[in-house]
Every structure is written in structure tokens, then in C-alpha cells.
């Protein structure tokens, strides 16, 4: 928990310097509280770095493709010349990401995660998939993660301004 707290302090300090007056001074504290609520419900005082990273990536203002690539980098494992994501790795990722809508009572069941894994690996004979197959599956907007592109689209539309006037 201390490692995540230190990282968040640095992250929010940098953000305050880049965007003066736009970042709440308690942002790191609020974010840590959110991560604890999502990933340490039993009060162990421990949150996996990878889980926290998945949440921060998904809540970031980056593009969907950049988020998807970052998920792959955090959850996939090197296998010789390639980096691959296994069913087990994908299960961990989806379980971690499912904690975000779950915090507001909108998470899906474990069977929903299993259906998504089956769908991602449909027609795959190997035990793991490459990044391009993973990205292709995510671009199809699987139901288990439908909240992610929806939130992204909402955040992008907040920046749109039109020069039209209503009468």
C-alpha cells in the first residue's frame, strides 16, 4: 500500500505542475481510497500493483487503443520471441477491471468473465494469444468491458464544443 501511495503522490504532484489549479490536492488520497475500496475489501492492507495499474489505466484520459495496449503489457508474459496473454492472465485482467463498475454496484458475475475468456480464445488452438488477437477482441467491445469504451466516449464528448446557438 505504501508503494502505491508514494507512486500516486508523485503522479498527482506532476499533474498539478502540468495543470495548475485543475488537480485536487487530495487527488492521490482519494485515488488510494478508491483502489482500497476496489481491491482490498477484506482490509489486508495489500493491493496488487498490477490491479492498481489496470484501474489507473482504465480511468486515464488516454485513447482506448493505448489503454488496451497497456493492459496487454501489464498482464501478458514473454514467451521466447513473443509476448502472450494466457487464459489465466486474461481472467486476472477481467477480474481486476470488473472491480471498477462493481464499486458502484454494476459489476458482472464470474460466469460473465468466463464467457468473455471463451469468446476471446474462440478458434484459438494455443494456450495463449498474441497482442493483435487480444486487441482485435477488445475492439469488438465484449459485454464484460462495455463500460470502458462507453466511459471513454463520454469523456471525449465533454471536450467537444460547437459554435451553434440555440434559440
TrEMBL record:
One of its GO terms (biological process) is synaptic signaling. GO terms for cellular component: plasma membrane; synapse. Residues 65-154 form the EF-hand domain. This is DYTN protein. It comes from Molothrus ater (Brown-headed cowbird). The lineage of its organism: Eukaryota, Metazoa, Chordata, Craniata, Vertebrata.
Amino acid at each position: 500500500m505504501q508503494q502505491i501511495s508514494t507512486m500516486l503522490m508523485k503522479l498527482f504532484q506532476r499533474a498539478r505542475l502540468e495543470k495548475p489549479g485543475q488537480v485536487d490536492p487530495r487527488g492521490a488520497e482519494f485515488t488510494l481510497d478508491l483502489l482500497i475500496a476496489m481491491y482490498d475489501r477484506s482490509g489486508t492492507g495489500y493491493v496488487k500493483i498490477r490491479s492498481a495499474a489496470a484501474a489507473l489505466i482504465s480511468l486515464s484520459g488516454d485513447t482506448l487503443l493505448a489503454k488496451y495496449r497497456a493492459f496487454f503489457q501489464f498482464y501478458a508474459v514473454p514467451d521466447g520471441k513473443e509476448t502472450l496473454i494466457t487464459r489465466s492472465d486474461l481472467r486476472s485482467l477481467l477480474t481486476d477491471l470488473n472491480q471498477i463498475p462493481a464499486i458502484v454496484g454494476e459489476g458482472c458475475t464470474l460466469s460473465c468473465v468466463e464467457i468473455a475468456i471463451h469468446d476471446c480464445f474462440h478458434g484459438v488452438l494455443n494456450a495463449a494469444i498474441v497482442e493483435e488477437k487480444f486487441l482485435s477482441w477488445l475492439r469488438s467491445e465484449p459485454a464484460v468491458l462495455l463500460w470502458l469504451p462507453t466511459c471513454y466516449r463520454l469523456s471525449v464528448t465533454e471536450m467537444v464544443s460547437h459554435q451553434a446557438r440555440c434559440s
